[in-house]
Amino acid sequence: MSSERTKASVVVRNATLDDVPAIAALVLKVYGRPADGYTPGMLRGQISSFTEGQFLVEYDGEVVGYAASFIVSADLALKPHDWIEITGNGYAARHDPEGDWLYGMEVCVDPEIRRTRIGQRLYNARQKLCEDWELQGIVFGGRMPGWKRKRKQYPNPEDYVEAVKAQKITDPVIRYHLRAGFEPIGVLRNYLEEDTDSGGHATHMVWRNPYAVEVKPANKVSYAVKERVRVATVQVQMRAVKSFEEFMSNVEYFVDVCSDRRADFVVFPELFTLQLLAFEKRKLSPAESIEALTRYTPRFVEEMRELAISYNINIIGGSHPTRTDDGDIQNVAYVFLRNGSVHAQEKIHPTPDERHWWNIKGGDSVDVIPTDCGPIGVLICYDSEFPELARRLTDEGARILFTPFCTDSRQGYLRVRYCCHARCIENQLYVVTSGCTGNLPNVENMDINYAQSAILTPCDYPFAREGIAAEIAENVEAVVMADLDLNDLNFARSEGTVRNLRDRRFDLYRVAWKDGG
């Protein structure tokens, strides 16, 4: 009986957001501890910032290699820098479509896969990208792990690199890069503290593209191609409904209206499901009210999901009190995508009233949600007043943030409004707000509401003069829509009057998250 040996299949391709769990598992396997690798949030940021520069290798369908890269200007790439500064804290947040150098921020390969040249395939993919895009070359900080053993002989790391180049000593990583056509133009001191074998330093490696043009044409990236997303916000009149069916009928009306006008997203207000308490048989205390609402969670989620599918629209379903797996009640925004998937974003910072009257607990994480229009973020009301949350979502690739809110006074509303506009400016993205109006006389702690929902933009030439794409009049039930051009954000970030994201001082400050993100 003859046997036939089947060759393993090796595929090199661009990474997608669906690959994030597999890449995170690979990084953990390579480096051994979560702190040594990239968080899922960082990986989402890399892929969202520059999909074309993120490569992975599949071996018989399993991810065994990953290379992360992005484009930067020569001013950043060729001068001294450290890993945190150049990579934007690991998110590839310094990606510049108008840059002329490809920066390699990571290559990792499954140590169990031998004799398949996984690393070489990743380097080849980078070089092809560099040639296709007519970039000047590739630059990165390379490891020099042999220096730890030779430190007494070569206390100066530059002397160590020169000795390796002269073949007086051997360093496996430096020699690999030299054979691959890279040249060291110096040593990046204090590049990555965790690399103790290299003393925290790195070789400043460069590969020059032989096909690069001498003078690059202006405006290499075209902004003429529109990348429009139509968004709608609903300002909901809180009213005394007689049943769950009546409540959902009102919701479906607005979903239908927005779908007819081909909106990609529709957003409802925070806690708009409190209307369901209007038909309770007796007046409930605040704690009893929230407990009663949690019983509607499964039905609310399922029926909203069906609306998203049947009307072919992505729905940010306001927020709804939900009892989570740990037994706490949290204020949760559910996002219902038109492909049938459901995502949940907990409110991170409950207000003092939410904590006191309703015993609502804060959530533990904030991350982007992948949609057919790109990654989005959700910040529920008070969360919009904490800038580090929006910055993380921006670093993960969000270009639109949705903020369902519920405020009972003009002062409270303006806190949310002003902070949302600040988030637009400092992150150069869009924010869509949706609030409640009217009153619920029989519902404790929800007797009055004040809102003026809006679609907000950065303040620069491509956008509306006041940074307001659309807004609803104060305290009336209505819907407004706007077409948001995501390419305008790309222009603002790379060529705008101010460039908040690019001009961050990573050498001076950064936000450190407990999960490493």
Automatic annotation (TrEMBL):
Hydrolase in keyword set: yes
Q: Cite the CN hydrolase domain residue spans from the record.
A: 229-486
Q: Which keywords does this Swiss-Prot/TrEMBL entry list? A: Hydrolase
Q: Name one GO molecular function term.
A: hydrolase activity
**Residue stretches in coiled coil:** none
The N-acetyltransferase domain extends over 10-210
Pfam families (alphabetical): Acetyltransf_1, CN_hydrolase
Q: Where does the chain cross the membrane?
A: none
SUPFAM superfamilies from the xrefs?
Acyl-CoA N-acyltransferases (Nat), Carbon-nitrogen hydrolase
Q: Which domain of life is it from?
A: Bacteria
Q: Which PANTHER family match?
A: HYDROLASE YHCX, NITRILASE-RELATED
- Please identify the protein, giving its name as recorded: Carbon-nitrogen hydrolase family protein
